[in-house]
Amino acid sequence: MSVETKATNIVWHAHAVTRTEREERFGHRGATLWFTGLSGSGKSTLANAVDAALWERGVRSYVLDGDNVRHGLNRDLGFSPEDRTENIRRIGEVARLFTDAGIINLTAFISPYRADRDAARALQKEGDFIEIFVDCPLDVCEQRDTKGLYARARAGKIPEFTGISAPYEPPLRPEIVVQTAERTVEECVAQILSYLSNSGALKP
Amino acid sequence: MSVETKATNIVWHAHAVTRTEREERFGHRGATLWFTGLSGSGKSTLANAVDAALWERGVRSYVLDGDNVRHGLNRDLGFSPEDRTENIRRIGEVARLFTDAGIINLTAFISPYRADRDAARALQKEGDFIEIFVDCPLDVCEQRDTKGLYARARAGKIPEFTGISAPYEPPLRPEIVVQTAERTVEECVAQILSYLSNSGALKP
Question: Which CATH class is domain A27-199?
Fold first, then answer.
């Protein structure tokens, strides 16, 4: 890039730091770990646990979840099919930016529609988007009901609630499936880290 | 955060890595350097030059500009006043996420409206948002016309072009003013780095 400054006749040059340079210095690749699953399946808990495990290994990582996105970037969006699609589109774009910055970003959103997740995947290069299906039976999620949302949805107080009154389309070919009703957090984290090691994401 | 797993009676615990922990390890604070100014004033060139200088110092930084945002996250937006406002709102939210991730993020957008920039500032804590007015006279920007946009705007081929047919509201109290018609890139970069050093942003 160069900009000629006519006023002083000086040519401006700027070197843009590349993703490759970042990855070489950081010692690992940028990538998106896209957690998808029902409310209460454990997406956010697991994303934060993987984030903490990556932190212990010196990896640069960051969690995007309802707390920092739904009340911020996407606070203008509701839960209609169109708004859910736009919600996931924006998250997919932000995830791409973090990947480009050389950061392993972990997104924890229900993201119920297959087409929306595939669109987020299509924004990134092959291997940069790792879909993690947080597989947990509806009845277990509903028993947990950590936020009391299922009870309110069953009472008809939350319209379009995924699994109750709105669809969830499970991934067909996710890179990773974690079964949180049958495994501990530690086991699920180990499974994900193992995948990352084997796939080369933890090397530049 | 804890989620009780009813199925196995195991309580899930996850430690969320905090911004403070990130900043202590990285050795510098997260912050937004918000470049604002006319088209051709040198925002993107300067943001990339500062990014490169921070890179040399081992600082984690990332540039958000038209190339990676306007064609991605904000590709549904045009240049009407409403769309410009939404454009800057989203960029402000993404900047906040990068700051929270402990990264010095540099945004290079015209961002012509004072109220929009102030709204982006209000999303962040005192001191985290550093507004940099890239001050360059319109006639110099128009002489440079690196992208040929001014010629097209003068010919009436680009509606609502900032400085020609749409307003630019200069900052009233920016943290930094760089005068790119009178200084070299190196001088402007040195000025900005000096501010960052003195303000403590380059320390955790």
Answer: alpha beta
